[in-house]
Amino acid sequence: MGRLYSFCRNIFRKKRVDQDLDEEIRSYLELLVAEKVSHGATYEEALREARLETGGVEQVKESVRDIRIGGWIDTLLQDIRYSIRSLVKNPSFSVVAVATLALGIGATTGIFTVVNGVLLEPLPYPEPDRLVMLWESQLSDGTLGTVAPANFFDWHEQSRSFEKMAALDPYPDFILGGSGEAKRLAGAAVSHEFFSLLGVRMAVGRDFLKEEDRPGFNHVVILGYSAWRNYFGGSPDIVGKSLTLNNTGYTVVGVLPRNFSLVSKPSDLQSRNRFDIWTPLALPSPPEPWQRGTHPLSVFARLKPGVSLQQAQGDVNQVAANLQRLYPADDKERGIAITPLVQHVVADVRKALLTLLGAVVMLLLIACANVANLLLTRAAIRRKEIAVRAALGASRMRIARQLITESLVLAIAGGLLGLIIVFVAVPALLHRLPTDLPRASEIAVDGRVLIFSTLLSILTGLVFGLAPLVQCWGVNPNDVLKQGGRAISSSHFRLRSLLVIGQVAITLVLLTGAVLMAKSMWKLLQVSPGFQTDHILTARLSLPPQYTNGNVFGTGRHPRISLFQRALLERAREIPGVKSAAFTAYLPLSGVDNSWAFDIEGRPPHPPGVNDITNYRPVSAGYFETMGIPVLRGRSFTPTDTENSPLVVIINSSMARIWWKQQDPIGSRVRFSGDKWRIIVGVVGDMHHVGLSAKPEPEIYVPYGQVSNVEARPVIVLRTSVEPASVVNALRTAVSQVDGAVPVDQIETMTQIVYGSVGQSRFRTAVIVMFALLALFIASIGLYGVMSYSVSQRTREFGIRMALGASPGNILRVVLYEAAKLVIIGISLGLAGAALVARLIANLLFEVPPFDPAALASAAILLGAIGLLASYVPAQRAAKADPMESLRYE
Fold first, then answer.
1. Residues β-bridged to residue 715
2. How far apart, in whole angstroms, are the C-alpha atoms of residue 77 and residue 57?
3. Which among 17, 181, 270, 751 is least surrounded, fewest beta carbons within 10 Å?
4. Could you say which of 721, 742, 763 is where a domain stops?
5. How far apart, in whole angstroms, are the C-alpha atoms of residue 217 and residue 201?
């Protein structure tokens, strides 16, 4: 064997004429010889057949001269062709490796697609970096809030840092007149610079004019593209046509483009970030005094070129100081805060999405380690081939190039399959994303995603291709050929063991995060919302202007609303299967809310601009009984609590505890700003209105017949003894019988509303748990592969042990002990990473400490059990081996 090595080394070292050409000759012949050896030929036969096929060295030189035109490209293509042939000849290895990589690369690319659409893509407006939002801020605690119309007017007039400033009121609704069933269109009122500020050009028609943004001149509308198509058939001559909205004539002046979307955080606009109809805001100039006490507006602005955020903040601070001096009753404790639009929109989801991206990168690393282990096994099998190539004169760099090429071919194949998975999975994923995820409509597989997937595939190929390269780098081909390929160095097993330890450590990190998130989600779902969720149907109604005398912002009671509600409740209670019915203005967990300042009789008045704030809840009689909210003290509302009876309220237990402490609040009187005194007649249980993870806040409930402001979008709530969905048609019929001009929409069960309120928590928990289970599966396969390989290489050793008297149990313990060492070392290393990850995701957890011993212990125990189970099969195989067969094993 040594003579063959010397002969092969010297064949092409005599009388070299051209160094580069001889290098290519060696490459050409070494591939031929290696391929024949892999088919079972001896080294001498392979060398002889290769030389016969080429017709001698000189003919090879001529052939190589003919193909040298392509230079390194031809060499690369040669390597690729050989790699593909080699992988095709080992289909089981190739399928497992490509599938593992496709899983890792596909999952990583899929999550990156979401991150790209939500966090990385620039906003769909010209020069989006100059877009900001302005907020009223509480100087005491920095809380941000929406803006009073009068304040917006002053900001617009006094600030100097903005090219344009515009406001949006998301509350208006419009009832489209005409034949057939009444239709509610979601509306928004905007100042005339709103669309030009965003850089939006109309698909049809024009933008609002400045003169149309005044009271009395504002009966013009711009249609959303979907509303234009759905309600008006996409008529190209829609501009100039008259519409009847809320029994008032409007003229269509424009249609928004198909791709327009208002990028916002859903909670900013009370979950109303899709609008069908846009009208001018039409603030009076100067604003009415009452318009400084109500705060419905979201304010957008575009910075002037060259103006920094810090300069703009200094500018608006001066404006705020001026308003504090001029209007102390409303603005004394209020400042102005500026936030970049893109940062504000994604602020609540940035950390969660980056956490998911980090989790999937860990999964990809585990997949890479698994493929590296497969390649190490394959490299051990191919060590004769590699030794022959080295004996033929191939340099270490030449062998390294071939190994890296094979790794890249695998990675690119896995990347292509992963990309196919992404193209199929992303559309399905979009339907399962949380409804309150901002910018979800912009998630798509675009050029950036394709570039990311390509670079990721190449990087992945290089990463897992290093393992066999490192293993083969120091191999002495003379030793390999002398040994006949039987002996495997201990460094080979150590490298595979290190890869398994890394897999176990990363898997523990993922498992710990998954256990923490799952435990947090479980605790969140155990939170009682404060009401019963089963067998409750909800539906929103939109009352035409005649019910409110066209008064949207004003105050005053409206008896016609009470008459409509009483008539509808009577009909609703007669529907078969309906046990009770009631109305509310702000449904829990719906994203819609309202709060008012109040005073308590007998207590010192508040300084100007400082008020106690409580959440304001208009409800009808029977609401607490229908929703299953317990009345703790006093009484509930009754049908006799009307506009002609004494004014009463009911408070929740949080409000009683905070303001009355140990005293009984029943009989005390409170009043809203500018309102009359009202008697507290009851205390009810707390209810989670904002979200299950948010603490209940103080609330005051007011009978619908005694509300001080217009509530034209009531929600009817039905408790049923049957499936709630079965009474939907009967409810629609009841509404049309009372008033056919009242649209009914947003029909949902309370179970659906509660389920949707935890959408983001549920989504990220499901994704991380899925990644952790996949990581556990891949790591267990890796450990199984290492132990199986170790058992196969130690077959003779185990045969000798058994021949000397070792029992099968002893062999079983030896193998399991070896596996346990790898698992324990991996778990020990993973604990540090798990502690770091737990700290990073602490604010994503609900009532679960980040350093939860139970979570760490359960993750470690599960990983250890699965690891030992994966090792048990090869250990059992070693224990059951026949000693005589083992001794004859080569």
1. 540, 584
2. 22
3. 17
4. 742
5. 22
| Helices 350-381 & 383-391 angle (0-180, nearest 10) | 70
Q: Are 166 and 191 in contact (CB under 8 A)?
A: yes
* Residue 300: inside a domain: yes
For residue 44, the one-letter residue type is: E
* The token pair that represents 426 in the structure block: 């992303």
β-strand partners of 189: 169, 279
Closest to 613 measured CA to CA, from 595, 588, 594: 595
Helices (H), 205-349: 225-232, 309-326, 328-331, 341-346
Residue 832: predicted pLDDT = 87
Convert the pLDDT of each residue in 188-219 to its tens digit: 999 999 999 999 999 999 999 999 999 988 99
Total structural domains within the chain: 2
Helix (H) or strand (E) holding 760: helix 759-793
pLDDT band, very low/low/confident/very high, at 597 (cuts 50, 70, 90): confident
Burial per residue of 360-376, b for 16 or more beta-carbon CB atoms within 10 angstroms, e otherwise: bbbbbbbbbbbbbbbbb
Give the Å distances, CA to CA, from 379 to 92, 376, 399, 434, 470: 15, 5, 12, 46, 11
Residue appearing with tokens 């905070």:
658
Phi, psi of 805 (to 5 degrees): 115, 0
Residue at 81: amino acid letter: R
Per the CB < 8 A criterion, the answer to whether 326 and 158 are in contact is no
Q: What is the pTM of this model?
A: 0.79
Q: Containing H/E element for 89?
A: none
Quote the CA–CA distance of 587 and 589 in Å, as a whole number.
7
Do 134 and 301 contact (CB within 8 A), yes or no? yes
Query: Hey, which bits of 507-661 come out as E strands?
Result: 536-541, 578-584, 595-600, 612-619, 631-634, 648-652
**Domain containing 230: what range?**
141-332
Question: What are the tens digits of pLDDT across the range 329-353?
Answer: 888 888 999 999 998 888 888 888 9
Give the chain's end-to-end CA distance (angstroms, integer): 18
* All residues at 6 or more sequence positions from 492 whose CB lies less than 8 Å from its CB, including other chains: 376, 380, 471
* Contact indicator for 37, 388 with CB cutoff of 8 Å: yes
The DSSP code for 292 is: G
pLDDT digits (tens, 9 = 90+) for 385-412: 666 666 666 666 777 777 788 888 888 9
The whole-angstrom separation of Cα 526 and Cα 519 is 11
Find where tokens 């067969």 sit.
885
Q: Is 462 helix (H, G, I), strand (E, B) or coil?
A: helix
Q: Compute the average pLDDT of residues 150-167.
A: 94
300, 341 contact by CB (below 8 A): yes
The residue whose two tokens read 């064997």 is: 1
Amino acid 40 reads: G
Q: Is residue 171 part of a domain?
A: yes
At which of 716, 742, 768 does a domain end?
742
Cα(870)–Cα(780) distance, rounded to whole angstroms? 6
480 within a domain of the structure (yes/no): no
> Which of the given ranges, 607-616, 658-667, 810-819, has the highest pLDDT on average?
658-667
Length of the chain, in residues: 890
Ordered DSSP codes for 767-784: HHHHHHHHHHHHHHHHHH
How many whole angstroms separate alpha carbon 530 and alpha carbon 692? 10
Query: What's the CA gap between 22 and 398, in Å, rounded?
Result: 13
SS3 62: helix
Contacts 24+ apart (CB under 8 A), 77-81: 78/27, 78/28, 78/31, 79/401, 79/402, 79/405, 80/405, 80/409
Residue 540 structure tokens: 């929103």
CB 145 within 8 A of CB 136: yes
The set of residues, in sequence order, having a beta carbon less than 8 Å from that of 472 and lying 6+ positions away, is: 379, 383, 386, 399, 400, 403
On the 0-12 / 13-18 / 19+ scale of CB atoms within 10 A, 777 is middle
Q: What's the CA gap between 611 and 602, in Å, rounded?
A: 15
How far apart CA 208 and CA 194 sit, in angstroms, is 9
Report residue 558 as tokens. Answer: 């409206």
Q: Which residue has the tokens 């760099």?
A: 397
